[in-house]
User: Fold this.
Amino acid sequence: MKNIITTLRLFITLSIITGVIYPLLITGVGRSFFAKEAGGSLVTVGDKVIGSELIGQNFKDPKYFWPRPSSIDYNPMPSGGSNLGPISADLKKAYDERKNGNNEIPQDMLFASASGLDPHVSPAAAKYQASRVAEARAFSTEQISLLNLLIDKATEKRDLGFLGDERVNVLKLNFALDSIPAH
Assistant:
């Protein structure tokens, strides 16, 4: 009986420490020192949340830049890749459909990211899409120059100068795109 009471006290104590105190402490530290990240890095327009900088969204309108393909249709709940390997016939079929005979399309526009939620494309992928966006918006030559400057400005450098690749956040680029005045 003594062992059961000791075990029960230890269980309750550890449950309170690891299930209540620790999560509250970590949440408090996160919100105090990393408020934006702890809040989901939300992008807002006025009082309306339009998305997160950390989760890709499916833009289909030709007037906007498109993200990488997603095997989970940009649904953050089941986050994950397709698990198709390099010799998969289904992956080859999806690749061929996306490529559609175009040898100039950047690789990141042909393959989904591992999570299926990558919010970034390469600067090459953004520049590749610029002509479609400009045509869909009937941009003038001056506006096309602004569009290219916008892509350059939206390009995020490599982390610490050597980690990862340069990248462009599609949501932030599309949000900035709407700031180009119409003629």
